[in-house]
Please model this.
Amino acid sequence: MPVAIAPSAPAPPKPVILWSHHRSCSTAFVRAFIAHPGTKVAHEPFLRVSALSGVDTIHGDRAFENSDKSPWYNVTRMDIASILSDNALPTFDSDGKLQADAADERTVFVKDMAQSAFRGEALAALRTDTKTFRGPDDAHTYQPPSPIDATPINPTIFPVSVLRKFTHAFLIRDPTRAIPSVVRGLSDVAATRPGARPGFSSEVAAYICYLEQRILYNFLTDPESEFNTAPWDNEGGKEQFIQQPQPVPLIDASDLLEDPHKVLSQFCNAVGIPFNPLMLKWDTDPVEEFDVPWRLMFKKAEGSSGFERDTRTPEEIARSLAEEDALIVKDLIKKYRGDYECVKP
Model:
């Protein structure tokens, strides 16, 4: 008598992380996934920790005053990653204790800055022209890849066993469009902090993270990196998850804004989330996920109802800047052009 063979269980939902940089149209991308009925969104959870935590900070000084009153103050990025890697969202109970939300069938979609995944000592080693970042006093020294596109060691705070529990993707934007907006946005946010100096500074410029995107992208794609060569442990075995697509999905914002339907469809197919037309339009109600001290950065995206092309030329964008900012922007575009060109599809 033939023996019936039970069908193999489908792979569980695997959370997706989109690694971006400031002003890469990532907030609009988040709005698309908030509108998707099959996903639930964690918006910049690691950035929140690095800015508000007192036990896991990448900064030389506390990023925001009164952060000790935030429930995020006693949280680490590993605490958050442990919850997200189980396809759940981090929440806080009435006593401010971190917990996972109720399980359901939706896929967790995370958007964060590539920089927010990095260890403080890695950022300090990469950003020797600023004292914005630092690692713990007992941290091992991080050795940046040399040359820059050599196989990098893991620059993140997360072990490979945790990183492999996510599907990773990247969103980038041409510096001629992103950096002018970064200068305005980060300057506005910095100005809200007590004792802030007026104008744009090297400390604020340190948050322009094209370099971190380049290194993280290389770490996840390089076939010789630890991410792709380390043995799989028994608990998080290879067969347990949908495999990381290679090359890692990468979107240029210009393509996204040119044809949102096409690009979102391709992206969803690559990361294992069914495309839904509801992703293309959304309402303009306030977004709970944007309730952070740097909410000013999301003002335009929060008031939008869909993806909007910026039809201005780079020259028109440059002319819209104050004279002192225009010179800063020109230098920053030149500085980060190479990082963008090396990653762009």
Notes: The chain has 14 helices and seven strands. The beta strands are 16-20, 39-43, 90-92, 98-100, 107-113, 167-172, 250-252. The chain has one domain: 16-343.
